[in-house]
Amino acid sequence: MLDVLSFDFMQNALIAGLLVAIACGVMGSFVVVNRLSGVAGGIAHASYGGVGLACFLGFSPMLGSLGFAILCALLMGFLTWRDRDRADTLIGVIWAVGMALGVILTDLTPGYSGDMMSFLFGSILTVPTELLYLMGGLLAVILVTVSVFFRRFLAISYDPEFSCVRGERVLLLYLLLITLIALTVVMAVQAVGLILVIALLTLPAFIAEAYAKGLVSMMVIASAISAILVVAGLFIAYSFNFVTGPVIILLGALVYLVHLAVKKLSR
């Protein structure tokens, strides 16, 4: 089984998977704590508009999805902050518009023959070396920003009203947090696709929450679980010629069911 690591594409896939696992472990913890799974899912699906725009204009789909994801994240964050009662509706509208725009622009692209499945369910086995540098740069931005603003993110996650009383710019911190989630979503799409990305963000973090004593330990445990899921899913998918993204998510669902069973038996 270890012989497959001699292939360049498998080495790239493994590195990409570990980068995604760390990002999802860190930012997935914030998604779970702040109950932002709807926002993360909306960003993932809306980012397909950037993929369609990139194909239409002839540049990198990841750069297109990255720019579109950040714009949609800021728009979602601002609108949902101002009108939280209608947050689900606003997210759904942006979600649908982004997906529709991506499909139309893809249809309008002359001679476009790309496989839409790679964006929907991931294409980690085809990640080129140059894309690894971009993913590594995004992870560095995420980790550095979280380190610098960790206490402020922690405060607005558990007690935003008190943070506001202390004079913190809560809206700006919230938008920054949403932007980091958008960066993570774009990275994770490479591994599991935009349809399944929300599961990789939330399942490991939700499991880790039950065993962690604080947010930092939750991030570490979630990153470890994500790494195990990605690596195991990668080898299983390669061995049986399956699509990697769904295998990773099914493994995550299995681990979650085992977690629930253990939790129930322990009671």
What does this entry look like structurally?
This protein is an all-alpha fold and 267 residues long. The chain has a single domain (2-266), classed as ABC transporter involved in vitamin B12 uptake, BtuC. Helix content is 82%, strand content 0%. It is built from eleven helices and no strands. The radius of gyration is 18 Å and the shape is globular. The mean pLDDT is 86.
What attributes characterize this protein structure?
267 residues; mainly alpha; ABC transporter involved in vitamin B12 uptake, BtuC
Short description:
With 267 residues, this protein is mostly helical. The protein has helices at residues 8-33, 37-46, 48-57, 61-82, 87-108, 117-121, 129-158, 160-165, 170-209, 215-240, 244-266. The mean pLDDT is 86.
Q: For the residues shown, what is the average pLDDT?
A: 86
CATH class: Mainly Alpha
CATH topology: ABC transporter involved in vitamin B12 uptake, BtuC
Based on DSSP secondary structure assignment, what is the total number of beta strands?
0
Distance between the termini: 39 Å
